[in-house]
Amino acid sequence: MLTTLDLKRMKKDGDKITMVTAYDYPSAKQAEAAGVDTILVGDSLGNVVLGYDSTTKVTLADMIHHAKAVKRGAPNTFIAVDMPFMTYHTSLEQAINNAAKLFQETDCHAVKIEGRSKNTLELIEILTDGGIPVISHLGLTPQMVHVMGGYRVQGRDDATRKKLLQDAKDLVSAGAVAVVLEGIPEPLGKEITEAIDVPTIGIGAGRFCDGQVLVYHDILQYGVDRFAKFVKNYANYDEIGIDAMKRYVKEVKEGEFPQKEHTYEA
After folding, report:
1. Does domain 4-236 have CATH number 3.20.20.60?
2. DSSP string, 135-150
């Protein structure tokens, strides 16, 4: 199983890091079998699995529930779990307690925290001192989508480019063991990657990040009908799955299933 030191070594060696966002036992089991380096249990489960219109409805209990399932499916893979909306903003004490609860109950290897603020930096320092590794997240941060005015690429003007670069440096100084970069121009992804000594994991941040992350359901085109520009589908589970279920419905309706071999003797 990889450690935070292994991830840092991979950056130094130019060994690209693979991360898949997964939310349950079977997807985690497949990711581990495929040799994925790291799994992120993302609060995007709100959109992808629970059918919400944003991540802001996801609770701490939701994250713990899904992360425990992922851990059972991928016991030998480095797992990070998102701190969900407003679980680290109301007070420092509550944020620490929530992070500790998430970390202890899921047996994960890191928690992920969006954004950079004075409070976030302090929280990362305290959690790191207490033994909880933190992965940071900059750029398009979904929990802030309503403040940002929608899902928009960040860092296109000089002022925000400079701010994101400095934010990344500040987060690393506070103790972040990696930084997810989402929805930023490729040149900025490259600049940040070269400026910090911990891995960058890109999702719509270009080719020069130390690693890449995609959502399990996007990779397999499973139950998702809209895809961001940065997504590549490697299969079409929707087509395969719907076709299979149509055949099941047809066979039941026409009395073709079950057959004798599908039944038990008295």
Report:
1. yes
2. EEEEES-GGGHHHHTS
